[in-house]
Design a protein that fits this description.
InterPro entries: Sperm_putr-bd. By secondary structure, this protein is of the alpha/beta class. It contains 14 helices and nine strands.
Length: about 350
């Protein structure tokens, strides 16, 4: 009789456990919502998200869009984002508006394995840069006969009517404003000189682009001969025009820092920090570099010359990039945008 009761009890217990598994009781996976750009989706799904989901028993949900769209969703509270990937220009806005959690760096030990410039580009309380690119110049040598070596070359007669520049509201907009100040002969940023210099070239601009896809399409159709572009997109330009060249200007290229932060009010803060740590790992950084998805910031990533082609790689390159003060940029953004609309884009 004792054996029968034990058997009945075991069956009942097993039934309850199976019922719990069937309706997700106590076994439901956590959900981690990531806001990002949406490019190279197959790579991220297979190489970044899937291994993390398996290790942490979590479902990753991705929301995509450009910087401005996704930051606005967080501002409006219309999404339940845990982690947000943004360029430093937009991330600084989020910090100023109190939209991000302060991070616990003890939960992100891989921060110690990345370039110093990437560890805290917007302050120790906020997320690191997971990739560092450079803004330089791409051009079509079939249309521009003289070799391009300097930002000032964009002001040459060859580029007149063949040029594109980023809009002031684009990530690269303030960088080009700073470059114009340099072309005008200033070592420190001079707003008046920068706008005066841009006034000289504005009539030769085919379009002030807001999205990289616009640049690539114009380049492919030979509507433009070139202009400032982030190196990470050069592969798309070269696919359309194999002879295209990318140049690091003699005055210096600009660092493009893409950051990752935890959104204010996230219920998965520690899990989000674990994901950031995974994003900075040598494994992910190497895979993304070899796939030419992102330039690595982890100093332990080792690439061959062929693997490094077309990405920003190595301390000797990264340490030479010019860094803008994003707090200064955002404090002046409204004034610069208004002035741009009146003096440059009209």
């Amino acid at each position: 009789m004792k054996k029968v009761l034990t058997g009945i009890t075991s069956v009942a217990l097993a039934s309850m456990l199976l019922a719990g598994c069937g309706d997700g009781g106590g076994a439901a996976k956590e959900k981690l919502v990531i806001s990002t750009w949406g490019f190279s989706e197959e790579f991220f799904n297979e190489q970044v998200y899937a291994p993390f989901e398996e290790e942490h028993n979590v479902d990753i949900v991705v929301e995509v869009g450009n910087n401005a769209e996704r930051l606005n969703k967080i501002r409006q509270g219309t999404s339940q984002v845990d982690i947000v990937f943004l360029s430093d220009y937009y991330a600084q806005q989020g910090i100023a508006e109190g939209l991000f959690e302060t991070i616990d760096r003890a939960n992100i030990p891989n921060i110690e394995q990345i370039y110093d410039s990437a560890k805290a580009p917007l302050g120790e309380d906020y997320g690191p840069a997971y990739t560092v690119g450079q803004l330089g110049i791409a051009y079509n040598p079939n249309l521009i006969k003289n070799e391009v070596t300097s930002w000032s070359d964009l002001w040459s007669d060859e580029f007149a009517g063949n040029l594109t520049l980023p809009n002031i509201t684009a990530t690269a907009g303030p960088m080009v404003l700073d470059a114009a100040s340099t072309v005008a002969g200033n070592t420190a940023f001079n707003e008046d000189a920068a706008f005066a210099e841009l006034t000289k070239v504005k009539d030769g601009v085919v379009k002030f682009y807001s999205q990289t896809s616009e640049y690539v399409n114009m380049f492919a159709q030979e509507e433009i001969a070139g202009g400032p572009i982030m190196e990470m997109y050069f592969k798309d330009i070269q696919a359309a025009v194999p002879e295209a060249k990318f140049v690091t200007p003699s005055e210096g290229a600009y660092a493009v820092m893409n950051t990752v932060n935890v959104v204010k009010g996230s219920k998965n803060k520690e899990l989000a920090e674990e994901f950031i740590n995974w994003q900075l790992s040598e494994e992910v950084q190497t895979a993304s570099a070899k796939a030419k998805v992102d330039s690595p910031v982890n100093v332990n990533v080792k690439l061959t010359e062929e693997e490094a082609e077309g990405i920003t790689y190595g301390a000797d390159v990264v340490d030479q990039l010019k860094l803008l003060d994003m707090e200064f940029v955002n404090n002046n953004a409204a004034v610069w945008t208004d002035r741009w609309n009146r003096e440059i884009a009209n």
